[in-house]
């Protein structure tokens, strides 16, 4: 397996060198050698970085992501955890879609005042049950 210089890895992955160094410091990736002061990585570090990026996009912390790699830094993805996060994302999507509908209604509502709109007031109560909408 060929080695990749930290600068090449940074450019290929689109991740700053400082971030690669940090990921190494916290145990997410590992350099395998150095040429002078420049760190060298196995080619599979690109796969690891893609998985890290995917995990971050899904809302996992770096600690959680680190736990998804075994000692050789191969992915060991816990399916129940992934299902749970997918469920959380589905719930977040539903909340955001409801918010989007509320904002569209507010923007397009023909009522003279938003507070005079019964649908808007109902949406306020549903979206913020702890706040009295009058």
Automatic annotation (TrEMBL):
Keywords: DNA-binding
InterPro entries referenced in this protein's UniProt entry, alphabetically: DNA-bd_dom_put_sf, MerR-type_HTH_dom, MerR_fam
Domain named HTH merR-type: residues: 1-71
Any GO molecular function: DNA binding
Family annotation (Gene3D superfamilies): 1.10.1660.10
SUPFAM superfamilies the record matches: Putative DNA-binding domain
Top-level taxonomic group: Bacteria
Keyword DNA-binding in annotation: yes
PANTHER family (UniProt xref): MERR FAMILY REGULATORY PROTEIN (PTHR30204:SF97), REDOX-CYCLING DRUG-SENSING TRANSCRIPTIONAL ACTIVATOR SOXR (PTHR30204)
Protein name: DNA-binding transcriptional MerR regulator
Organism, scientific name: Ottowia thiooxydans
